[in-house]
């Protein structure tokens, strides 16, 4: 019997080392790819369902081609733990449209990503409408920079593009030039957010919210007058 003692010890150890396969479950999500305002469909566009990580190592779970109505559908199986990582992506994005859109609930959605957005996550057994906005441009304009204003820093959070907060020292010509340069609107059809004038402490804080027509460049005036 002694020769079998090692089996008594080895079998439980081997069982604990055995990998437990995670359950694979079906995932289905569908939607329409439309132009905002006109509801014009985008046919023959490749839509990818990915794990939400751009670049090397990105996993594409499924691909679908939009039909003449802009409709697409994903239908595949994935691990349960990956259900909250499924993100939609539009390959071959229309060049004359913005890279980001909104769904029918007003949430930002990623259709050609540079960074991760939680609102882009697709849910199982749901249907979505993804609206693409034609490109629009805008620029920030300022009042005449007095000596007093040039002693401050302008902080801008451009919420309409999900951008981070940017700081612009008003006594730096290069910073002011960058601030007032023309820039594309990345999401939706309005430039909106907050601006704060500060010098160690908050001097003035306000919001901006300006409609930007497609294919035009719109002025967004920031009232810095104290």
Describe the structure in your own words.
- With 226 residues, this protein is mainly beta.
- Helix content is 9%, strand content 43%.
- It has helices at 5-17, 173-179, and strands spanning 24-35, 46-50, 60-65, 71-79, 87-90, 97-102, 108-110, 126-134, 137-141, 153-157, 165-169, 183-184, 190-199, 201-211, 217-221.
- The chain has a 5-stranded mixed sheet, with no helix packed on it. Strands 11-10-13-14 form a 4-stranded antiparallel sheet, covered by helices on one side.
Average pLDDT, to the nearest integer? 78
Biggest sheet strand order reads 4-1-8-6-7
Runs in which pLDDT lies below 50 for 5 or more consecutive residues are 110-119
SSE string, helices as H and strands as E: HEEEEEEEEEEEHEEEE
Number of helices: 2
The assigned structural class equals mainly beta
- Assign an overall shape: elongated
Sketch the major β-sheet.
Answer: 5 strands, mixed
Number of strands: 15
Q: What's the structural blueprint in terms of helices and strands?
A:
Elements: H1 5-17, E1 24-35, E2 46-50, E3 60-65, E4 71-79, E5 87-90, E6 97-102, E7 108-110, E8 126-134, E9 137-141, E10 153-157, E11 165-169, H2 173-179, E12 183-184, E13 190-199, E14 201-211, E15 217-221
Parallel strand pairs: 1-8, 9-15
Antiparallel strand pairs: 1-4, 2-3, 2-5, 6-7, 6-8, 9-12, 10-11, 10-13, 13-14
A few lines on this structure:
With 226 residues, the protein is mainly beta. It contains two helices and 15 strands.
């Amino acid at each position: 019997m002694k020769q079998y003692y090692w089996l008594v010890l080895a079998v439980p150890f081997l069982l604990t080392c055995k990998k437990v396969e995670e359950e694979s479950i079906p995932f289905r999500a569908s939607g329409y790819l439309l132009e905002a305002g006109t509801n014009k469909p985008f046919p023959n566009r490749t839509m990818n369902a990915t794990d939400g990580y751009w670049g090397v190592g990105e996993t594409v779970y499924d691909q679908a081609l939009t039909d003449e109505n802009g409709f697409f559908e994903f239908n595949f199986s994935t691990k349960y733990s990956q259900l909250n990582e499924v993100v939609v992506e539009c390959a071959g994005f229309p060049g004359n449209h913005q890279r980001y859109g909104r769904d029918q609930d007003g949430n930002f959605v990623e259709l050609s990503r540079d960074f991760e957005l939680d609102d882009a996550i697709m849910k199982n057994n749901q249907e979505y409408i993804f609206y693409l906005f034609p490109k629009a441009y805008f620029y920030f304009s300022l009042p005449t920079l007095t000596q007093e204003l040039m002693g401050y820093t302008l902080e801008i959070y451009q919420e309409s593009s999900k951008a981070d907060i940017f700081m612009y020292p008003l006594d730096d010509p290069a910073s002011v030039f960058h601030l007032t340069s023309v820039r594309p609107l990345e999401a939706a059809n309005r430039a909106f957010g907050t601006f704060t004038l500060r010098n160690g402490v908050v001097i003035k804080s306000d919001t901006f919210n300006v409609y930007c027509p497609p294919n035009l460049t719109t002025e967004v005036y920031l009232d810095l007058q104290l």
